[in-house]
Write a structure and sequence with these properties.
This protein is an all-alpha fold and 91 residues long. It has one domain. The protein has one helix and no strands. The longest helix has 82 residues. The model has no long low-confidence stretch (mean pLDDT 84).
Length: 91
Amino acid sequence: MRFAVLAAAAVGAKSLYDKYWPRVTSLRAPAKEFAAHTSVIVEDTAERTQDAVREAAGAASDAASEMGRAAGDAKDEAARRLSGTDGPARH
């Protein structure tokens, strides 16, 4: 009885293999193409993101430098006004 069940299972597995294996092989090529195409898109996106991050970091650094210069100018202007002179403040 066990042998008959095993034999029936083997026949069923073989018929499923024969039925679906051609479909599996025909889908492998599109899956590989999709993976390759997706890989290129991901690499391109990562590269663009890195460029954008570098650009944003540069802009932030420039803005911070400009803010530092503006703060220094404001400090000098305030010191000059407080001392009542029109020239550069003496420290």
